């Protein structure tokens, strides 16, 4: 995909996250205060953190699209998983603070019964956050953006935590006020779990994790389909953010001249790049087979 077109697609996803979270953070904060709900106030703080992390994601995507230079021959794509890792760290911090606040309220606080506006806010959040998760995740997967996918899971954490909030606020309204801070505690645990999953995925990306067997098989089948290829070995692939670099050794007829062997190598490079969407660079070494 053209870098500028990819960036425009990513920007749509980031703007959806930022604008949606601005609305939700204000709405839930007001509803939580008016409705005396710790769980809803905690959820509004989570949405505020979503705004900040979405901005980090946008910065990562914007600068990650810069072309290669003399110091970064494979481009700046690693800025995207770095942005995703920052999202994970932010999730961990927010989750820990929610745990601490909810636990403190449950042990030492004075319980209050939330008002109806608190549960309305949580229900609105459920529907809007599910739409945001689906929309941003779909764009992230279409353009293969680790940062945008991480941001979509931030929205998913809000969607699932809001279900817990509805249960907690509803239980408190039915006469069990401790369920409100308990819901806030469970929200904190879930946010930490999401942060861990996002961090693990992006750290793996930065460390050059092995791609899926399906992707490797597709690369091998593509190389095998090129006329003149007698065999291959040492097929390797590593990611630089959303993009991937492939290297492989291709065996050709030992009687071929250098020019013909070079043409075969170029055909292998072009065909792999055209058939495997995340691959931007292919390094082919030819040898007699």
In terms of quaternary structure, what is this?
single chain
What is the first-to-last residue Cα distance? 35 Å
CATH topology of the largest domain: Alpha-lytic protease prodomain-like
Proportion of residues in extended strands: 5-15%
So what's the CATH class of the largest domain?
Answer: Mainly Alpha
Q: What class, by secondary structure content?
A: mainly alpha
Question: How would a textbook summarize the main sheet?
Answer: 3 strands, mixed
Please tally the β strands and state the result: 3
Radius of gyration: 24 Å
What is the H/E order?
Answer: HHHHHHHEEHE
Mean pLDDT: 78
Brief account:
The chain has 289 residues and is mainly α. The protein is built from eight helices and three strands, in the order αααααααββαβ.
Question: Mind explaining what this structure looks like?
Answer:
This protein has 289 residues and is mainly α. The chain has 2 domains: 3-206, Cation efflux protein transmembrane domain (Alpha-lytic protease prodomain-like); 213-288, Alpha-Beta Plaits. 70% of the residues lie in helices and 10% in strands. It has 8 helices and 3 strands; from the N terminus they run αααααααββαβ. It has helices at 3-34, 38-64, 79-108, 116-142, 146-173, 179-206, 213-224, 258-275; strands spanning 231-240, 243-252, 279-288. A 3-stranded mixed β-sheet has the order 1-2-3, with helices on one face. The protein is elongated. The mean pLDDT is 78.
């Amino acid at each position: 995909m053209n870098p500028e077109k990819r960036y425009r697609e990513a920007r749509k996803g980031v703007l959806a996250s930022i604008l949606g979270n601005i609305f939700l953070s204000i709405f839930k904060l007001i509803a939580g205060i008016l409705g005396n709900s710790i769980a809803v106030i905690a959820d509004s703080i989570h949405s505020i953190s979503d705004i900040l992390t979405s901005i980090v994601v946008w910065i990562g995507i914007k600068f990650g699209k810069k072309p290669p230079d003399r110091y970064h021959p494979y481009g700046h794509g690693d800025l995207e998983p770095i942005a995703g890792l920052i999202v994970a760290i932010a999730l961990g911090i927010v989750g820990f603070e929610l745990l601490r606040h909810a636990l403190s309220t449950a042990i030492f606080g004075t319980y209050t019964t939330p008002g109806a506006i608190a549960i309305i806010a949580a229900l609105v959040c459920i529907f809007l956050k599910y739409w945001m998760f689906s929309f941003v995740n779909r764009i992230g997967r279409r353009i293969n953006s680790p940062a945008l996918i991480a941001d979509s899971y931030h929205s998913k954490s809000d969607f699932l935590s809001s279900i817990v909030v509805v249960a907690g606020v509803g239980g408190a309204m039915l006469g069990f006020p401790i369920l409100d801070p308990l819901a806030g505690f469970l929200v904190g645990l879930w946010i930490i779990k999401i942060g861990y999953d996002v961090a693990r995925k992006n750290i793996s990306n930065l460390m050059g994790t092995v791609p899926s067997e399906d992707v490797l098989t597709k690369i091998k089948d593509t190389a095998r389909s090129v006329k003149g290829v007698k065999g291959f070995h040492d097929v390797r692939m590593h990611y630089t953010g959303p993009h991937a670099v492939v290297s492989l050794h291709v065996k050709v007829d030992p009687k071929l001249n250098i020019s013909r062997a070079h043409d075969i190598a170029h055909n292998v490079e072009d065909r792999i790049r055209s058939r495997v969407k995340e691959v931007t660079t292919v390094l082919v070494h030819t040898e007699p087979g």
